[in-house]
Design brief:
By secondary structure, the protein is an all-alpha fold. It folds into two domains: 58 residues, no CATH class; 160 residues, Ferritin, CATH 1.20.1260.10. 64% of the residues lie in helices and 0% in strands. It has nine helices and no strands. The longest helix has 27 residues.
Length: 222
């Protein structure tokens, strides 16, 4: 029996003429659109083939729930980590003045992400993922800024990596709105470190759930 795979919200945008025209206007033309879709790990021809090549539609977020709820809970878990990280950094006493205020601001915004994602999961009839216990290496101001930049860049890549897997338009909109903020956080931190604010060039690279979870595993202690 053939299994019908519901197209992702991203692929529906790419295939719908009206939505496609809007996206073309934003991205600046068909070449830019193609590069954008490629960066998201999808294409405009066939979501089915992409899903099948990825292992029967596996997103890597199944441990957090089914479908969009699982993806949202995966994102929520990452936001828990970021919120806890910034809370610990503020308490560490390593930063003062404008840098401390920036860190406080970032932490507050991550906490808002937690609140929003928690509400969204409940609204969809799901159970929010539990908050993990965390521990971060806070040895020096520079090492903390480097870790913060790594975490924010990873967070942005995580949202981008799930974009082609999301089925609901509202879920996609929520994910992209947070993805944008994660990217801006990363850019600000990279600037403080004297690094490029676009480490991957014109199009950001996505990260799979397996890659992301493996990267944050050392910070989860229970």
């Amino acid at each position: 029996m053939a299994v019908e795979i519901k197209p992702s919200a991203l692929s529906r945008v790419a295939s719908d003429p009206v939505s496609r025209r809007k996206l073309l206007a934003v991205t600046g033309g068909s070449t830019a659109l193609a590069a954008f879709l490629a960066a998201c790990g999808s294409d405009s021809d066939s979501t089915t083939s992409t899903m099948e090549s990825a292992g029967g539609g596996k997103t890597g977020t199944e441990q957090f729930g089914k479908g969009d709820v699982g993806i949202l809970n995966y994102a929520l878990t990452l936001e828990y980590l970021e919120t806890a990280f910034y809370e610990d950094v503020v308490k560490s006493g390593l930063f003062k003045g404008s840098e401390l205020e920036t860190i406080r601001k970032f932490g507050s915004e991550e906490a808002e992400h937690v609140q929003a994602l928690t509400g969204f999961v409940k609204q969809m009839g799901g159970k929010p993922a539990p908050k993990p216990k965390t521990e971060f290496p806070l040895k020096s101001a520079k090492s903390v800024l480097e870790l913060a930049a790594t975490v924010e860049n990873l967070g942005a890549a995580a949202y981008l990596g799930q974009a082609p897997n999301i089925k609901g338009a509202s879920t996609l909109a929520a994910a992209l709105s947070i993805h944008s903020v994660e990217g801006r956080h990363a850019a600000a931190l990279d600037t403080l470190l004297g690094k490029s604010i676009v480490p991957d060039g014109a199009f950001a690279k996505p990260a799979s759930a397996d890659e992301v979870l493996k990267s944050v595993e050392p910070f989860i202690v229970g």
